[in-house]
Amino acid sequence: MSRILIIHSSDAEPILDRLREGFDAGSVTFLNVQAVPANELRSLIIAKSRQIDVCLVLSSDLLLHLLVQLTRQGQSRRSQYLLAEPGTVAIQLNLDRPARAARAIWKTLFGVSHVVPTEPLLNMSERELFYLAHILRDTLRPSLRPDVQARRPPSASDTTAYFHMERIEYPPAFASANQREVELLFATNREPAAGPMVTDFTGDRAEVLSYGGCKVIVPLDHKIGKLELPKKANWLLLRFTDEKPDETRHFVIKGISTFDQDEFCDIVHRDPTKTALVFVHGFNTSFQDSVLRFAQIIWDMQFKGAPVLFSWPSAGGVLNYIYDLNSAMGARVWFQKLIQLLRADAGVETIHIIAHSMGNFIVLDALSELAKAGSLPGLSEVVMAAPDVDVDVYKSLAASIRPKVRGMTLYASANDKALVASRKAARKPRAGDVVGGRPVLLSNIESIDVSAIGDEMFGLNHNVFASNRSLVDDIGRLVLSGARPPNQRSPQIRCVPEGNDPPDYWRYVP
After folding, report:
1. Residues 412, 431: Cα–Cα separation, whole Å
2. Read out DSSP for 243-296?
3. What's the DSSP call for residue 445?
4. How far apart are the C-alpha atoms of 364 and 387, rounded to whole Å?
5. How many whole angstroms from its chain centre is CA 436?
6. DSSP string covering 170-214, please?
7. What is the DSSP code (8-state) at residue 430?
8. Which residues of 125-160 are buried (b: 16+ CB within 10 A; e: fewer)?
9. Are 61 and 37 in contact (CB under 8 A)?
10. Strand pairing report for 234-235 and 238-239
């Protein structure tokens, strides 16, 4: 039986009452830091750490504030960490949802090489908490016995299997009643929204890449190809009461968590398929909008690998085109870092990319630079949906990338409103246009004209590309199977001209 020390503050009492049900009385000690004089706390924790196998920290903003005060007393060297016993297995359980900086401070305070972020305890049901307590009591000790006996922390993968509640597989008796959930990872160079907890990211540009994960609820009556969201009550410039989110009828973001880079790579590395699908959104898209859209695509495609959203700082407004274009230019280096990280650090063997609208400029320019430098990892499918890229720039960039990927597919439309507006501003066709009755053609790149779907196919906010079942189905078949040419994936995609083998391009016929 493991000897467990639980460090907490007074705001954890409701959680502790339920956790106690799963522990034997002699196996656990609870330490409320608010009940100990500040000048005695460090020595008390050090003394107790020598008598235990596992230290759990119920992390909260209040506890963090109390512990940070101790860092101002000169604990800067490893021998002076708050929890100084190096053999103690230290695991963090989030009481609320501390910010990325909070987890970094926690690592510094306790001097351990890994932290296991979990589903916030306040979001867990009573059955989930009870089951967690049983895992701690009955399962932790046998699984960690060699490491504990050797007096060194176990690897992150050893502990994550039990404590990473975003990924844990509950027995049927403890399973959530709502199984319609999508989990996705993200990397973003947006600034986090202001507040004690990271629950959103703004359109402002950051100088670092943030990592995290989201859980999204899929409505019970979801129709493939649709993104069901609460309706906004607008009339002219007046805003009336918006419809309230309803998990039975709308896509709803259940939670947003942030990780450090090592945690992000570790999660991706554990995916058994060794396959990642990277989605890069387009112009006029907020962070939460990009999360919801990608969740819908993942669900409709039934993608089983590691879904990774790259969200760049779009201002999320129709009138912010120039700002978004400059943001896209600045995001290229961060996208390069993400792709190299997935291959080199996370061990991903197959990488698919879906880029949309202005997101194509980020993808094409970043990959082209990597290709020219000889450092572009082999990619699988690169899907370019309505690329808002100058046609000559597109031809140059795409030609340098094509030899390094298994396949590239262009979806173009003559009716896309956003591309029409962009073309007028640039005074030149965009790569996603259909000019002179045909899409832009480039050797060994499959171009598909989807104009027949209508002028809202890609929409002003460039999100409707996923709202047509046939197109979602085609992208899904392409990514999941690599089947080509396009007319073998769907009878609605026809050769142009018909009978030619190979044809010049393909056309969607509803």
Report:
1. 8
2. PPP-TTTS-EEEEEEEE-HHHHHHHHHT-TT-EEEEEE--SS--HHHHHHHHHH
3. B
4. 10
5. 39
6. --GGG--S---EEEEEEEEEEEEPSSSS---EEEEEEEEEEEEEE
7. B
8. eeebbebbbeebbeebbeebeebbeeeebbebebbb
9. no
10. antiparallel
* Nearest Cα residue to 96 out of 119, 65, 116: 119
Q: Is the dihedral of CA 276, 338, 269, 176 positive or negative?
A: negative
Check residue 50 and report its DSSP letter.
Answer: T
Report the distance separating Cα 145 and Cα 149, nearest Å: 6
Q: Is the dihedral of CA 505, 463, 459, 227 positive or negative?
A: positive
Give the separation between CA 376 and CA 370, rounded to whole angstroms: 5
Q: What are phi and psi of 44, to 5 degrees?
A: -70, -45
Q: Respond yes or no on whether the N-terminal peptide bond of residue 485 is cis (omega within 30° of 0).
A: yes
Dig out the tokens for 386 from the structure: 């309505």
Interaxial angle between packed helices 359-372 and 391-401, expressed in degrees from 0 to 180 and rounded to the nearest 10: 40
Joined together, the tokens standing for residue 381 give 């499918």
Closest CA to 167 of 206, 210, 119: 119
- Helices 100-110 & 61-71, crossing angle to 10 degrees? 50
**The one-letter amino acid at 94:** N
What's at 508, amino acid-wise? Y
Contact (Cβ atoms closer than 8 angstroms) between residue 230 and residue 245? yes
CA-to-CA separations, 268 to 136, 260, 338, 433, in angstroms, rounded = 25, 13, 12, 36
**3-state secondary structure string, 202-247?**
EEEEEEEEEEEEEEEECCCCCCCCCCCCCCCCEECCEECCCCCCCC
**Token representation of residue 469:** 């079942």
Give the pTM. Answer: 0.65
Would you give per-residue pLDDT tens digits along the chain (510 residues)? Answer: 557 788 888 777 766 766 666 566 667 788 888 888 777 777 787 777 777 767 777 777 677 666 666 555 544 443 344 554 555 556 666 666 544 445 555 555 655 434 444 455 656 555 555 555 555 544 444 433 343 333 333 333 333 333 333 333 333 333 334 468 889 999 999 999 876 667 789 999 999 999 999 999 898 878 777 788 887 655 544 544 567 777 778 888 988 888 889 889 989 998 889 999 999 998 889 999 999 999 989 988 888 899 999 999 998 777 788 999 999 999 999 999 999 999 999 999 999 999 998 999 999 999 999 999 888 888 999 999 989 999 999 999 999 999 999 999 999 988 776 677 677 767 778 999 998 889 999 999 999 998 887 664 433 334 445 666 667 888 888 998 888 899 888 888 999 998 887 899 999 887
Residue 76, number of CB atoms within 10 A of its CB: 9
Rounded to whole angstroms, what are the CA distances from 446 to 125, 155, 426, 442, 493? 49, 45, 25, 8, 12
Nearest to 209 by CA among 193, 190, 182, 194: 190
Q: In the beta sheet, which residues pair with residue 184?
A: 214
